Amino acid sequence: MLTAPALRTLGELRRAFAAGDVPRRTVREEVRQNLVATLRAGETLFPGIVGYDDTVIPQLVNAILSRHHFILLGLRGQAKTRLLRALVTLLDPFIPVVAGCEINDDPMAPLCGACRERVAAEGDDLPIAWLDRASRYVEKLATPDVTIADIVGDIDPIKAARAGLQLSSELTMHYGLLPRANRGIFAINELPDLAGKIQVGLFNILQEGDVQIKGYPVRLPLDVLIAFTANPEDYTARGKIITPLKDRIGAEIRTHYPATRHDAMRITAQEAWLRRDGGLDVQVPSFVAEVVEEIAFQARQDRKIDRRSGVSQRLPISVLETVVSNAERRALLSGESPAVARVTDVYAALPSMTGKFELEYEGEMKGAEHVAREVVRAAVANVAVACLEDADTRRVIEWFDLGGHLLVADTTPGRDIVALGNQVQGLAELAHRVGVPPDASAPLLASGMDFVLEGLYALKKIGRSDERGYVGESPAPKPRRERPLEPDFDTLPTMSGGKKKYYN
Known about the structure:
- Helix content is 40%, strand content 12%.
- The protein has helices at residues 10-18, 27-41, 56-65, 80-86, 113-122, 148-151, 157-163, 177-180, 196-200, 203-207, 235-238, 243-248, 261-271, 286-301, 314-334, 345-348, 361-366, 368-387, 394-401, 414-421, 427-433, 442-458, and strands at residues 70-73, 94-98, 128-132, 137-141, 153-155, 173-175, 184-189, 210-213, 216-219, 224-230, 251-254, 282-283, 339-340, 462-465, 469-472.
- Helix 14 (286-301) packs antiparallel against helix 15 (314-334) and helix 21 (427-433) packs across helix 22.
């Protein structure tokens, strides 16, 4: 664990600076130089950020090397906030500040009037403190009710009255979040939600460092790196970024969802809570994890789901956690161990899914749960195609077509599913084909059988009903229709009551 330097007064700091022991640089120079050192050492940039190595991170690195303020544009659930918070790793472990200063003033060159007065009065005996890197990151979620006082500051009449000062005195200022982020990183999430007049207040701060508080011009050349996030699809519905502010932002970086299922699975495994307490061993087979991840990919391209709103990466994270919880519940009820997740557990996770996407008109007509079930079936089919490629599934399909049926539920213990599944010719072999080892436990083998059955159902090879479970998909033969008897045209009555003879 890093510890702060032992320097405690301004005099000690000045001597250390003269000896070259303490660097003095702006925050953007500091971040740039630390980034350069990280790149030269070949160390990992932004640990925990997956899937951006060849797209977003190179653009972000260029922005930092250019000492630019920047904005991350992307749909919800694309790790924009996480990426901003990872910038803290590029800050120095500790920096010296004037002890008790609200805006983290540099003891060697203080900005605020109070600190300048203290330096003049106390000289080298001025006490200093050391600010750690985590405290140098300030984040604000933009909402329509945010005021300029929240961001920049305001006049504090109570402070003026207690100190006997004029309201025009700089010492009566109450600093907002941005001045308090001095010598650090200031992040604003969802920038379009910030009122236009508040965005105007950021103009000079980004460019010249001028600040006006309640009409009093205050020269505050803040040393700060400003970063923003925004959802580009929300501009028209919730506001917009005014053009002059966009002009002062050095780089506009687009984020995206994971490009591959492998990257998405790494993110979900990293973020989801899968290690449960209580001593119960929980296992998630790879085919179950793939199905959960494929749900998000299928939802992002489903025409019944609003693509402009996006499908957050939080969807597979929440779904996988609920899938594991359902497996845990089943294991506790049946007394079996380990608790192994199944593909059919995904249907128990529908409540974790329906609230995470917006529907188009066609989807609203069908309902969120119906759309979610269709997405799950498409995801299972896509994964099953790859897992059962070149596999001989004819014996299993024929067993159901000949009248066989299996009624299983998500609460059925694994040992019961294995006993039922062994009646189906070739089902156990297919379970081993998808990755279940020959010596697998009953719950794991049951999960493999469950995946094969659900995969064949998703591929429309077999059917499934609530009453009989898995059944044959082949349609029953249609009953033979007898040819109707031809009428005796010789005896048909005429309108006049007589008989008329027809000739072919």
